[in-house]
Amino acid sequence: MAGAYDDRDGKIWMDGQLVEWRDANVHILTHAMHYASSVFEGERCYSGKIFKSREHSARLITSGNLIDFEIPYSVDEIEAAKQATLDANGLTDAYVRAVAWRGAGEDMGVASAKNPVHMAVACWEWGNYYGDAKMKGAKLDIAKWKRPSPETAPSQAKAAGLYMIATMSKHAAEAKGCSDAMMFDYRGYVAEATGANIFFVKDGEVHTPDADAFLNGITRQTVIGMLKEKVVTVHERVIMPEELEGFEQCWLTGTAAEVTPVGQIGDYNFEVGALTRDISESYEKLVRV
């Protein structure tokens, strides 16, 4: 499948029905378009099985609750919708996008309690998120935008509005020839990339920022569990910018990113070392079990 995302062959699940890809549209006065009242999940299907599928479905519901709406589908119903979408498109290895949003209704201001909540599921073939970076290491810029305080935004929701500064940061990074950008949080601590969590290695031990001001990713949690099973010490802690110079290895984690080595962040360089390669290969095996 190729071409613009609104002009493809296939089926998309919308509110209980499979519709033609090009007909999967919403009204211009959809509340989410104006006020970002939307949440989503990104998932990968490997050999016919979505990795951590139920965890993603449950998080979608939680994200909706965190931005003050109820998704009108249960975890089981969301699971069935995802499988129906994969089957309708004949895909067994794919990226799966479930999204829920406040639609058009009686309200067209900041408040939208009277508007219906909709849900859709799309899927498509998608290769490495960072291209050949999985082999040689991604190059990251350092973003000027910071992840907001949990007192100003629901940081544990996978909500569309939280990605606005991520989009701007990634655009700025790409303009400099980078794959992505690393972001600090509101306190100036190392946080994450624009759509992936970040890990560092020093003296055989792993360090990753506390997920207290950004999404605690499902892949992040999976990788931490894998490292502990390998008896690798993992420190979830505050990481200061000046520590970047002392780290030896670095990688990103996320459903789209999977486990992607990082070779450079700003002026700091990292090797694609043995532990990075091992955890990347181990993750590849795990998702295909």
Task: Describe the protein.
By secondary structure, the protein is an alpha+beta fold. The protein folds into 2 domains: 114 residues, D-amino Acid Aminotransferase, Chain A, domain 1; 154 residues, D-amino Acid Aminotransferase, subunit A, domain 2 (D-amino Acid Aminotransferase, Chain A, domain 2, Alpha-Beta Barrel). The protein is built from 7 helices and 15 strands. The strands form 2 sheets. Strands 7, 8, 9, 10, 11, 12, 13, 14 and 15 form a 9-stranded mixed β-sheet that branches. A 6-stranded antiparallel β-sheet has the order 2-1-6-5-3-4. β13 and β14 form a beta hairpin. α2 packs across α3. It starts with 10 loop residues before the first strand and ends with a helix.
